[in-house]
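Quick one, C-alpha cells below. Sequence please?
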C-alpha cells in the first residue's frame, strides 16, 4: 500500500470516512498543516517508520480449541465432521483409529476371550462324541435316524454362512453368541454321529493325539519367530487341492489313497492352526485379526481343531480296517 504524504491528513486534520493510522515520517521541510496535536513522539520515528494502517475487512479471532489441543489437531471423541483439525475426526489418520489394537492389554483380553469361547465349544463337542460313542442306545438311535443328521447339517451350513458373511451379526452380542451356539450344537452332533462309526479305542486315541498335536502347535505359534500370517494364499490353494482330492476319495475306495488323503488333510489344517493362532496374536506378525472379531477367531480355531481330529481319526480307522 502506498501513501501520498502530501494529501494524507494528520490525526488533527481528520476527514469524514478517514481511518487514521500512524502519521508518516516527516518529509523535507515542515509538513503541511503544521505538527500534529501534541507533537511528534519523543525520540523520533522508529527505524523503518510506523506500520501501515490495518487492511479493511474481517480479521478472524485466534483459534481456540475447547479440547486444549493445537490448531489442526484431530480429536477422536468429536466426530461432528470428518475433516481433520478443529475438533474433527480424521479416519485416515494412522494415529487415531478408535482403539489402539496394538495395545498389549487389549490384545491379551481378546486372547482370553477367544480361548474361553473355544473351550466351551470343545467341551460341547466332546460331550456329543462321548455320548454317541459310549452310550449304545443313543449310538443306535442316531445311526438309524438319518433325518437328524441332515437337519443338523442344514443348521450348521446356515450358521457358518451367517457368521462368515454377516459381519454385523458376528460382532453384535448376544446375536453372535446365539448363532455360534447353534453352530456348535449342530457341528457337535455331526461329529458325534461320525465318530460313532469308529471303534471306541480309536476315538480315544484320536482325541489324545489331537490334544497333544494342537497343544504343541499352539505353543509353537506363540514362540516361533517365523511369520505364518503371510501364507494365507498358499493355504487357500492347499485347501482347494485337498477338496478336489476329497471328491476323488469318494469314488476311489483304496486304503492307501484314503490314508494319503487323511494325512494331507491333517497336515494342512495343522498349518492352518498355526496361521489362525498368529492372526489372533497380532503384535510382531504382519497381519492380525481385529479384537472385535473374537467370535470369528474362536470359530477359526475350532474348525482347525475338529478337522485335525477327524483326519487323525480317519488315519487310525483306515490303518486298522
Amino acid at each position: 500500500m502506498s501513501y501520498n504524504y502530501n494529501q494524507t491528513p494528520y490525526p488533527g486534520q481528520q476527514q469524514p470516512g478517514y481511518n487514521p493510522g500512524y502519521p508518516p515520517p516527516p518529509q523535507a521541510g515542515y509538513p503541511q498543516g503544521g505538527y500534529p496535536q501534541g507533537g511528534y513522539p519523543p525520540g523520533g520515528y522508529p527505524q523503518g517508520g510506523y506500520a501501515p494502517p490495518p487492511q479493511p475487512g474481517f480479521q478472524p479471532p485466534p483459534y481456540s480449541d475447547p479440547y486444549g489441543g493445537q490448531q489442526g489437531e484431530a480429536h477422536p471423541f468429536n466426530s461432528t465432521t470428518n475433516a481433520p483439525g478443529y475438533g474433527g475426526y480424521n479416519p485416515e489418520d494412522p494415529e487415531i483409529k478408535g482403539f489402539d489394537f496394538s495395545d498389549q492389554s487389549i490384545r491379551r483380553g481378546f486372547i482370553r476371550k477367544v480361548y474361553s469361547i473355544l473351550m466351551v465349544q470343545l467341551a460341547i463337542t466332546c460331550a456329543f462324541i462321548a455320548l454317541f460313542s459310549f452310550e449304545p442306545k443313543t449310538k443306535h438311535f442316531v445311526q438309524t435316524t438319518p433325518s437328524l443328521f441332515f437337519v443338523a447339517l442344514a443348521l450348521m451350513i446356515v450358521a457358518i454362512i451367517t457368521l462368515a458373511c454377516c459381519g454385523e451379526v458376528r460382532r453384535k452380542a448376544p446375536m453372535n453368541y446365539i448363532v455360534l451356539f447353534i453352530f456348535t450344537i449342530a457341528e457337535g452332533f455331526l461329529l458325534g454321529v461320525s465318530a460313532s462309526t469308529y471303534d471306541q479305542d480309536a476315538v480315544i486315541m484320536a482325541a489324545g493325539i489331537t490334544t497333544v498335536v494342537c497343544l504343541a502347535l499352539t505353543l509353537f505359534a506363540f514362540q516361533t519367530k517365523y511369520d505364518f500370517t503371510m501364507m494365507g494364499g498358499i493355504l487357500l490353494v492347499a485347501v482347494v487341492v485337498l477338496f478336489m482330492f476329497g471328491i476323488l476319495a469318494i469314488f476311489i475306495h483304496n486304503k492307501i489313497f484314503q490314508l494319503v488323503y487323511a494325512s494331507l488333510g491333517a497336515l494342512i489344517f495343522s498349518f492352518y492352526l498355526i496361521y489362525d493362532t498368529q492372526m489372533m496374536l497380532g503384535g510382531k506378525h504382519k497381519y492380525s485379526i481385529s479384537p472385535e472379531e473374537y467370535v470369528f477367531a474362536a470359530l477359526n480355531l475350532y474348525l482347525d481343531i475338529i478337522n485335525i481330529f477327524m483326519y487323525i481319526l480317519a488315519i487310525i480307522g483306515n490303518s486298522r480296517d
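The radius of gyration is 38 Å. The chain has two domains: 70-99, 104-320.
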